[in-house]
Amino acid sequence: MRPLLFCLVALGLLAQDQTELARALSSSRQRIDHIDDQIVKLLNERATVVREVGIVKTRFHAPASAPGREEQVLQRVSEQARAPLASEAVRKIYQTMLAEMSAMEDREMQSHGK
């Protein structure tokens, strides 16, 4: 009987801790959600401009990929990193974003070029 009682008390304390944790994190999580909403909005805005660039490149028969430009962007944004975010972390995030944007641009250029 005692082990069962101990388990029930422990589960009750754990549930209470989880509720308090969720309450303590609520405001920060709401702020993160708001920031994420802004990031997605800006990513969509950036993608719209990338699409415009692709149209210009198609008109001039230029390739979608621009490694020199990509390196300029990576250098510029990594220099803007501030603690707690390391410049290498910003660089990696942007490498992924640039790869996705470039792939989108390439797909759209292929479809417009046909």
Give a short overview.
This protein has 114 residues and is mostly helical. It is 86% helix and 0% strand.
Outline, from the CA principal axes?
elongated
Low-confidence stretches: none
Structural class: mainly alpha
How many strands? 0
Query: Helix coverage percent of residues?
Result: over 70%
- The DSSP helix count reads 3
Question: Sheet with the most strands?
Answer: none
Question: How large is the share of residues in beta strands?
Answer: under 5%
Distance linking N and C termini: 76 Å
Task: Characterise this structure.
This protein is mainly α and 114 residues long. 86% of the residues lie in helices and 0% in strands. The chain has helices at 2-59, 67-79, 87-113. α1 packs across α3 and α2 runs antiparallel to α3. The model has no long low-confidence stretch (mean pLDDT 88).
Keywords:
single chain, 114 residues, mainly alpha
What is the strand and helix layout of this fold?
Elements: H1 2-59, H2 67-79, H3 87-113
Helix pairs in contact: 1-3, 2-3
